[in-house]
């Protein structure tokens, strides 16, 4: 191994180094047990009957034929939900099983358990549901005036932001309407879990999720059990990206297990997975930017519509992000933004990496390019002229009180040399499909920068719990670390080990399975786990060190094993980041966010302008991470986030017609391959945030945000097209799209 | 569901005669998807992977006889020189894993309009060797595709091989997808020059209910090349010819609007692909370009 900062710390594999993940070899060899690999003696299999209609009244349900299928153990409907048949992440509005109405295609209506998954599927198909089909509400901009889908109407949340002079006038004004399509998390491990009924009347659920305790609370409520009787253990998670924040099969498997008294497994196939989790909100965004002749921003006005689909999920927080981050990382004195999250009969939308900031960034960065063009300015110069920095005020009035190196990030990506033009088919748009040998290929370059809040906002009590145990095993001090923080592939297990090593000076650190026998760690989302659970682990280590100091009783002891002797030191700590505040419901003012993260991208694309095919040649990134606790994992997050942003730019979209999903498969929902995603050059800045553990800044989301607008800006530069919608399809580049409103 | 595993072709044909509903399976890259998604539940699968006769290719006079069980990977590795367009099409199929398993025979059996091999088989004038206990039938590719996922095989027939002419003349395949690898064709096109007969083969995929030849485009180009004595002393083709060829190829399509692309885009893209592949093929013929990508 080459020398690295590890040598600077006293222990191998501590903070600032990139030790191997404990699950790395298993994963590379295909031996890692994911939730879909769960197995139990005598287990039976669950299946879910889902609505084929986006909006319908349920007139009748006839289970008799399904119950006659040999091998079937149970067939359940909403009548069999013993607790409250309604749940939700931020607002309880979603039935565990539909009662009188279905509000989206794929909504669960009934459950079957059988001794074989095929038997369950066959029985499921024998359930007869009588539907009275209703007209679906599918247009987010008119949903507020349309048929109400929930008792309170179709508004989930409206967030206004008002700052400065609402009548501010500018010398140069550009306006635009932008659309963002419905992106999917497209995690590779489908929803899966195993519910095991327990002798105490409770249930043990092994599941792939992002937040064990919020699942536990919702499952317990639906089952009518005290939370102590609903115990969750994290199973192998094959990616999450926000798509596992809401419940999928958790309550269903527990219902079947408790009803049959048998361990019950549920695993979705790929198609069902598209119906089984929330997606990124599609958005329509109307923007007006005004600037003076020198390019200084005078005002930003925006109306942002976010389609929440049938149920609220995390729409309220997504709306707040889109609004509070709606001008991007720029200083603007006069801001008027309204963001609405609405109910429709489209698939439910909720958390996905970038969480409201992605949609806004596509619009505000497109506007910055349009403004640069109107001013005759270089797009990077315009951005730098308006870039926020430490001490700048957000449109919410919140002062950014740690590093905000927006201009520097832009300069870093701008100043890299440009790549040469490719000659091999693999380097050209279309790849090995042999569509061009250079004909029609035009190169374009585009830039974007983005901002993301890190951690939970608006006054939420955002904390994590960690337990660290230290004892001597075989003459050597060994630490155990226990949290409920979900490892979803991002590498938190490694981070926890690194922190314990650094804090306690021990080499051997075992991370216990994550479960609900310890307090909540909060969600693995909002780029927050290294920050918050990392903070909790460090706090638990501090408590352990305090105990060690007591044991030492003033003596200086070099040998930790000798100091410990037979003593077992076991400390648990709860840790929370500094508090945030709610925003004012009328003005949107308030210190809503705990930390901000920034990233910038330069995209170089070759576009076959005749065929509308795109090859992203380069997508370099610069990001400030405060402190890279694990430099390799940081690069992994930047690569992955960038790729997901590229996907939204040029291919990833769940297409719906009248609320019906047209492409629920990896054949037609395309995600980037190695030939679509270029190798990246990445600049990582480490400008410590004094408020955060080790000075770190959340890493996972910022690169997703600026990647999309950078790629689209480059395609615009190559084609001269307006391209106000993502993903950009070949039809948009070649003007062969189907006219609006034409039948499919 | 029965899983039938014949060891010889004769045994397979006897089983197929006895159980015409049995679905043949080789690479399984199509059949298994249909089974896994419960789109199809045949009484029996007829596993052809144990039959040695299907696993090889051989040179026959003027053609390559490609066994139905030869995977794309081997077409790419072993037949790039003899069947350049088929090798190019094979390279664009799925992922490495799919190319290791999937076969041209399977492409023919499934007869999907989006099958990557079809335009090449049509443009080059390939012939399908269909066998049954009743004997052997040679079915020209032109007569093979009857409808969406329907082909000319009788219920008791299996595909033993496909005979692909070894023309020694330039031929090209190109396919548009919305991703740079591992993608189903939005539309595809193949062209094959046949200087010996003065003909041109041109065929399209994914832009009609079946893969189909663009016969008006073929005739137009053959006339243009014949009239100007271009086969004997080739000169660069006039823009009007290149453009007209593209228009005629686009006109041969009957595309639909679907989630993969609009009808208008498919027509437009076909005209571009036709023009470009003609350019490459003609450059190859005049000796100024590479014979195939």
What do you see in this structure?
The complex is a heterodimer of chains A (744) and B (293). Chain A is α/β, with parallel strands linked by helices and 744 residues long. Chain A is built from 16 helices and 28 strands. In chain A, strand 15, helix 7 (315-324) and strand 16 (334-343) form a beta-alpha-beta unit. In chain A, helix 8 (357-375) runs parallel beside helix 15 (702-719), helix 9 runs antiparallel to helix 10 (406-414) and helix 11 (492-504) packs parallel to helix 12. The longest helix of chain A is centred in the C-terminal third of the chain and has 24 residues, at 529-552. Chain B is an alpha+beta fold. Chain B has 2 domains: 2-45 and 54-165, 2-Layer Sandwich (Uridine Diphospho-n-acetylenolpyruvylglucosamine Reductase, domain 3); 176-285, Enolase-like, domain 1 (2-Layer Sandwich). Chain B contains 10 helices and 14 strands. Chain B has a 5-stranded antiparallel sheet. In chain B, strands 11-12-13-14 form a 4-stranded antiparallel sheet, with helices on both faces. In chain B, helix 3 (72-78) packs across helix 4, helix 8 (215-227) packs antiparallel against helix 9 and helix 9 crosses helix 10. The N and C termini of chain B lie far apart (44 Å). Residues 289-293 of chain B have low confidence and may be disordered. The chains are: A alpha/beta (744), B alpha+beta (293).
How would you concisely characterize the structure shown here?
By secondary structure, chain A is α/β, with parallel strands linked by helices. Chain A contains 16 helices and 28 strands. Helix content of chain A is 24%, strand content 25%.
